[in-house]
Automatic annotation (TrEMBL):
SUPFAM superfamilies per UniProt: JAB1/MPN domain
One GO BP annotation of this record: proteolysis
PANTHER family, per database record: DNA REPAIR PROTEIN RADC, UPF0758 PROTEIN YEES-RELATED
Keyword terms of this UniProt record: Hydrolase, Metal-binding, Metalloprotease, Protease, Zinc
Domain MPN: 108-231
One GO molecular-function entry: metal ion binding
Similarity remark: Belongs to the UPF0758 family.
Protein's name according to its UniProt entry: DNA repair protein RadC
Stored NCBIfam families: PRK00024.1, radc
InterPro entries on file: MPN, RadC_JAB, UPF0758, UPF0758_CS, UPF0758_N
Signal sequence interval, chain numbering: none
């Protein structure tokens, strides 16, 4: 009986070299195009995915933009089919879950960059405004995070009662709130500032400390009310108001 060897898959030698390079030297040894190529092979392992990866990079410019692209936009890339798109979306979902779970139980003060990384990944590609809360315990360890509102973010769409209810249900003693600016601008609006003051005051009546308000802009950019000194100003204003009400 004659035994025939399995035919070599198209581009298998090239892909194996990419895998070997990654295993030996890590992610920095691969270009963004090569990363996309390997991800696409998870969906269609018998296809040459290099042309599709190159076209995707030409069309979307960066690795994050490729991963964040809508399926209808990805379908316009020649050779990109449902299985390839699934592979990209799946790895995006895995990354988001990994970043979310990585921050849980970590102290926010010492892990604020990790929290920002998660929020950037979760919000940067959205075309609508989304309001999120990160719940912290008394030692400022992260308990949980969730999206509370979608659409234009202002004092009329973010209800303090719902935020406080969600915080109390998790026994949270502190909060970090965040929302994205789909326009890419990091400049807080008057509504953003009013929302921060309103939420800080309402939370303070329930002994919940609002530590920061983060705005996620384009790319990897973040605006922090605390870093800009605005949370200290809000804290002072609310303390003065509470003393007058007492």
């Amino acid at each position: 009986m004659n035994l025939q060897e399995d035919p070599i898959k198209p581009g298998e030698g090239h892909r194996q070299r990419l895998r070997d390079r990654f295993q030996a030297q890590g992610m920095d040894a691969l270009t963004d195009t090569e990363v996309i190529e390997l991800l696409l092979t998870f969906g269609t392992p018998r296809s040459d995915c290099r042309p599709s990866a190159e076209e995707a990079m030409q069309r979307f410019k960066t690795l994050p933009e490729v991963l964040d692209a809508h399926p209808t936009a990805l379908e316009k890339v020649k050779g990109m089919g449902p299985k390839n798109i699934f592979a990209l979306q799946f790895i995006q979902g895995v990354a988001r879950r990994y970043l979310r779970q990585r921050i849980q139980k970590k102290n926010y003060v010492t892990s604020s960059k990790d929290v920002a990384d998660y929020l950037i990944h979760a919000l940067r590609s959205l075309r609508r405004e989304v309001f999120m809360a990160v719940y912290l315990d008394a030692s400022h360890a992260v308990i949980d995070s969730e999206i509370l509102s979608e659409g234009t973010i202002n004092v009329n769409t973010v209800y303090p009662r719902e935020l406080i209810k969600a915080a109390l249900s998790r026994n949270a003693a502190a909060l970090v709130i965040a929302h994205n600016h789909p326009s890419g601008s990091l400049q807080p609006s008057a509504q953003d500032e009013q929302l921060t003051r309103t939420l800080f005051l309402m939370c303070s009546f329930m002994n919940i400390n609002l530590l920061d308000h983060l705005i996620i802009g384009a790319g990897e950019t973040v605006y922090s009310f605390a870093d800009q000194g605005q949370m200290a100003a809000v804290r002072n204003d609310c303390a003065a108001l509470r003393s007058r009400l007492a």
